[in-house]
C-alpha cells in the first residue's frame, strides 16, 4: 500500500485512490460528534449559497456553517463540537459548509473512494481503508481555510499513515504540538463564544469513535456522509 500526504486545495485536486480529506479543527470532528449524537445524514457543501438553497428546499434540515471560524447568518450551528454535543440532533439531517473541510471534498474529483477524517475517528478510518485493500491512499490536509497547512491536519495524516503502515506515533507529543501551535486559538478569552477551549480537547481525543465517515452519493449525484461502524 502506497500512502501519500497532500496539502490544501491543490492536494485535494491531485489526490488519487482511496482519499481521506482531513479537517481536525473542526469540520470532521464536528461531523463525528454529530453522528455519535444520533445524526442520520450529513450533506457536505462547499458553497455557502448552495447550502442556503438546500436549506430552503429542506427547511427541516439543520444548517451548520462557518467562515473564518464564525457561525454564519441563518445557521443553526457554527462549527463547534461542543455546541453539537449540547444539542438534540437524534435522527436529524444536517447541511454542513465550512472554510476548509467541505472544500476538500468538493475538489477531490480524482478520488476513487472519499472519506472524511479527523483524530477522533482515525483508527476506524484506517481500519475501513485496510478492508478495501487499496493500492494507493491519499491523505489530504485542508489546513486553515485552505490557505496554509496546519499542525493538527498534518499530524492527523501522519497518524493515519502510521496506522496503515504499522509505524510508531507519539500521541502525547502530537497534542503538545497542537496546543502550542494552531490550537492556541481555542485559548483566546475573547473568542470563546465561537472557539471554546473545550473544542480543543474534543478534537484531540484520538480514536474516540468506532466509525468511519465515507462519502456516498444520492441518485442525482449529491454528496452525503454517513456513519460506517468499523471497530
Radius of gyration over all CA atoms, rounded: 16 Å
What gap, in angstroms, lies between the N and C termini?
Answer: 21 Å
Poorly predicted ranges (pLDDT <50, ≥5 residues)?
Answer: none
Largest sheet: 7 strands, mixed
Shape: globular
Q: What is the number of helical segments per DSSP (H or I, 4+ residues)?
A: 9
- The string of secondary-structure elements, in order, is EHEHEHEEHEHEHEHHHEEE
Mean pLDDT across all residues, rounded? Answer: 98
Helix content: 25-40%
Strand composition percent = 15-25%
Which structural category do the helix and sheet elements fall into? alpha/beta
Total strand count, please?
Answer: 11
Structure in words:
With 231 residues, this protein is α/β, with parallel strands linked by helices. Helix content is 35%, strand content 23%. It has 9 helices and 11 strands. The protein has helices at residues 8-14, 27-36, 48-57, 81-85, 101-107, 122-132, 151-165, 171-180, 197-203; strands at 2-7, 17-22, 41-44, 62-67, 70-71, 93-97, 111-117, 136-141, 211-217, 223-225, 228-229. Strands 1, 2, 7, 8, 9, 10 and 11 form a 7-stranded mixed β-sheet that branches. Strands 3-6-4-5 form a 4-stranded mixed β-sheet, with helices on both faces. The radius of gyration is 16 Å and the shape is globular. The mean pLDDT is 98.
Amino acid at each position: 500500500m502506497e500512502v501519500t500526504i497532500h496539502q490544501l486545495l491543490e492536494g485535494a485536486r491531485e489526490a488519487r485512490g482511496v482519499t481521506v480529506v482531513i479537517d481536525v479543527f473542526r469540520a470532521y470532528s464536528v461531523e463525528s460528534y454529530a453522528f455519535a449524537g444520533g445524526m442520520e445524514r450529513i450533506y457536505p457543501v462547499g458553497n455557502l449559497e448552495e447550502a442556503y438553497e438546500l436549506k430552503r428546499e429542506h427547511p427541516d434540515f439543520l444548517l451548520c456553517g462557518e467562515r473564518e471560524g464564525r457561525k454564519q447568518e441563518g445557521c443553526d450551528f457554527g462549527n463547534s463540537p461542543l455546541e453539537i454535543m449540547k444539542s438534540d440532533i437524534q435522527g436529524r439531517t444536517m447541511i454542513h459548509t465550512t472554510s476548509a473541510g467541505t472544500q476538500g471534498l468538493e475538489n477531490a474529483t480524482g478520488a476513487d473512494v472519499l472519506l472524511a477524517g479527523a483524530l477522533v475517528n482515525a483508527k476506524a478510518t484506517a481500519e475501513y481503508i485496510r478492508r478495501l485493500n487499496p493500492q494507493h491512499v491519499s491523505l489530504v490536509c485542508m489546513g486553515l481555510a485552505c490557505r496554509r497547512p496546519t499542525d493538527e491536519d498534518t499530524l492527523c495524516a501522519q497518524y493515519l499513515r502510521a496506522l496503515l503502515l504499522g509505524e510508531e506515533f507519539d500521541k502525547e507529543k502530537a497534542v503538545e504540538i497542537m496546543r502550542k501551535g494552531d490550537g492556541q486559538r481555542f485559548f483566546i478569552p475573547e473568542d470563546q463564544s465561537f472557539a471554546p477551549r473545550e473544542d480543543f480537547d474534543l478534537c484531540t481525543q484520538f480514536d474516540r469513535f468506532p466509525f468511519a465517515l465515507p462519502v456516498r452519493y444520492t441518485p442525482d449525484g449529491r454528496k452525503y456522509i454517513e456513519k460506517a461502524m468499523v471497530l
